[in-house]
C-alpha cells in the first residue's frame, strides 16, 4: 500500500535519518517510536505528503487514501459540531444532492418511452446504487456513533465549534478523519486531548475498524492495545519489529546488549591493530604487515550503539512544612451552572500523605472540583483546606502564566534552591530541554513545551499538596517515569486527574469516580477499581449507570475493601479470558477439521462403490489415510474440549 525507499532527511548539515526503507501493508498497526527529536513527526509529515525528504521516495498506490492528524493544527470555527463532522461525507452529500436533482427531473418528465428518459433512469439507478455502496443511507448514524465515542453528547451536536476548547475541537478533527475511512491513517499523539473513555473507544476503533494505521504516542497501554508492529527510529536509521510495544522493549534491550558486546570486541580489535602498528611501524622487516594492518583499520566500519539515555535522573521534591492531618475535607459540596448540576452531595476526606486519582468522562466535574479546592470558583456546601497547606497546582493554563521574556534556563533558575541548582541542566534535559533548547525564550515555545516547563517549576517549588490536572499530556515515556518516581517519593498529598492508566498504576491508593452528578470513592489502585467494577477497561465508566446508582443507594463507601493484587490480578483475569476464547476457537477449528475429513471419506466411499473405484488400489490407500487422519483429528478435538472445559 505504501512503500518507503531510501528515505533521507537533513536539516542543515545534520542528517535526521538516512537510507530508510520499509513497507506499510493494508492491515498493519504500526507504532512509530524513538527519542524526542529522532524524526517521528517528520516521518509522518513525509508520508502525508506535507514535507519533502532530502532524498528517497514514498510510493502510495493510486487507489489509496491517506489521513493525517498532527499534534497541533489550525481549526475552523464557522460551523456546528455536526456540520463540521459532516465535512467527512462531502462526497456522499454531493451525490445525495445529485440523486435528488435526478429524482425531481424524473418526476417532471412525461416522455416515458424516449431514449433520453431511459438514460436518465439508468443514471438515477447507477447513482442510487453507488450512494448505497458508500453507506449513504446510514452515514448520519455512523457520524453520531463516532462523536459519542469521542466524548461528545447529543446536545453538543448543534453547538458552534467556537464554544469548545482547543482539545475538543481536535476531537472533531479526529472524528472527521475516522469517518473518512482512509486506507492509511497517520496519528501524531492522538490521545493528548482524550479522556480515558474516549481513548478506550479509539483503541477499539483503530484495532478493529481501520485499515493501515501508523501512530506516535507516549501512552504505553494505548500502543499495546492498538499496534502489532513497532518501527524505531534510532541512530539515523530504523529497526522494524513485528511485535507490540512491550515485546519491542525487551527485544531492543537484547539487541543493544549484542551491540555493546560487538562494539567492545571491535574496540579490542582496533586497539590490537593500533598496538601492532605502533610496535612495528619502523621495522623494515614488518613494513608489509604494518601496511596491511593500516588498510584493515581503514576498512573497519564503526559499530553504533542505539541511542538510549542511561542516565537515571531522580527528581525529588524540595522539603516542605508538615501539613495538617486532613488537607482536604468536602461535606455536601455541590456545583451548578444555571439549571445544570455538575455534581452534588460530594463527601470526601483526603488524609495527609494520600495519593488519589480523579477519573471519569470529560465534563463530569473532575477539573471543576479541583477549581473548587483551589478557591477559583464559588460552590455550595462545606470545603475545608487543612492547616499549613501549600498547594502546588498544575493545569494546562499554568503554562500561560510563565514570563515570556525569560529563557527556559532562567525560568527554572529563578525557583531552584540549594543543591538542585547544580543539576538544572540535567533536569531540563530530562524534560526535553537539553543543549541549546534551554536558551530559548518562553515566548517562542509551543504549548506543549510551555506545559513541560510549568511542570518543572512545580517540581522545584516546596509544596505539601500537589494537584495535577492531566500532567502527562506532553511528556514522553522516559519523562513520565521521572515524574512518577518523583511523585511516589513525595511525602506530601497528591490529587491526580489523569486518563493515563500506566501512570496511575502503582501511584494512587484511592480512586474517586465522577459520573451522573455524583462522586464515588473506591479504595485501592486503578486496577483494583477496574476489577471491582467488573470492567475490562476504564471505557466502561459511565456505561454502568444502574450499577453505580445501586452503589450510591448503599452509601458513598459501599466498596470498603480493595481487592488484592492490582494490575497483576486484573491482567491475570484478562489472560484467563484470552485463554478461554483461544480454547473455544481451537474446539471450533477441530470440529471443522473433523467435518471436512468426514465429508472427504463420504465422497471417497461413493467412488469406491463404483466398479472403477473398486478396481483402483489407490482409492483404498487414500481411504486408509483419511481414516487415520480422522482418528487423529477426533483425538485433537477431544483434547481441545477437555482444555476448554477446564478453563
Task: Give an overview of the whole structure.
- The structure is a single chain.
- With 647 residues, the protein is of the alpha/beta class.
- It is 45% helix and 18% strand.
- It is built from 21 helices and 18 strands.
- It has a 6-stranded mixed β-sheet, sandwiched between helices. A 6-stranded mixed β-sheet has the order 14-15-16-12-17-18, with helices on both faces.
User: How big is the Rg?
Assistant: 32 Å
| Main structural class | alpha/beta
Mean pLDDT over the residues: 81
**Low-confidence regions:** 536-540, 542-565
| Shape field | globular
C-alpha end-to-end distance: 41 Å
Helix content: 40-55%
Per DSSP E runs of 2 or more residues, the count of β-strands stands at: 18
**Estimated share of beta-strand residues:** 15-25%
Major sheet size, sense and barrel closure: 6 strands, mixed
- How many H/I helices? 21
